[in-house]
Amino acid sequence: MKRYLILEDGTVFPGEGFGSSIITTGQLVISNNRTGIEQSVTDPNAEGQIIAFTIPSVGSSGINRDFYESINSQCKGVVIGSSSISTVDDSVSFENWITSLRIPGIKNVDVRALSRHIAEHGEMKASIMDTHDEHAIDQIKALVLPPDLVKRVSTRQSYPNPNMGRKIVIVDLGLKYSILRQLSYRDCNSIIVNYNSTAKEIENLHPDGIIYSNGPGNPQDLPNVIKNIQILQKKYPILGIGLGNLLIALANDCQIEKLTTPHHESSLAVKEVASGKIDFVNHNHSYTLDQKYIGSSDFIVTNICVADGTIEGIRHEYLPIMGVLFEPEAAPGPTDGYYVFDEFIDLIDSVKQQEGAGSQWN
Domain Carbamoyl-phosphate synthase small subunit N-terminal spans what residues (predicted)? Predict the structure, then answer.
């Protein structure tokens, strides 16, 4: 079935439809991931997005349902160059999988030309449609994408991920399963709460530390979360990941900006400033910290992206607060970033030792 990927600037990319036949509109994101397609499609960060994969052919290894990052798919559509039939026994094909998830897809698209266009003009809205007339383009231009993406993916009911170690409260802004896995490996007793939980509700859980997870959308759409961080950061160690990192920055008078070339890649190099060590880690973000404001803040930059120099990690000079913009839990991507969870646990233990010795850190 002939279908069209139509960008809000009027550019049209023809292709062949697969998956669901519904018309869909979302934020078009160019993903350079070579593996981990399952994680990308089920990542809560993909809420409201149409993901265009630049890999020449998708699906040669089939789909592994053990690699899901949430129970349900989050993305609005997928765009690919071509798909392959899996050679793995008992593995479902990519196209059948997308169909089972009721996601619209379009293939045989010139993804290289699409990627160049987005690199030149920036991320924009797009639709997968059956026609490409002027009326269709006007519809896309007029559509306002919803700002409540975090509300759509955050848990509605608090729940535990039990263990016997340190108690970590995770504020779910779009939590990936792999974060829970990393905390479980470290014997953390986690409690996952809704993004809009009040500071008092979180305090009543008596956490040893708090994690603000990664998630979709613009952090400036979450003023209540920013206010909660301003209260809680004076009392508890905090780790921010992805969107959580940006919210921590905004809570401390920093500013953010949209990347000219957003980071959506499973193996992008990041340098640790103190040691010069290079890590290859997963990225999935369109915003970063405005470097003009970091110098006058109480944050030091801990990590930068090798490719473009953007800030990828921060740490507070006086409070036990740290954050990374990349995704240390990987999924997909290399495991180089796992150390971030170890550093956060060390931060929690350091605060406990200070409190045990009768000193105050805040």
Answer: 1-129
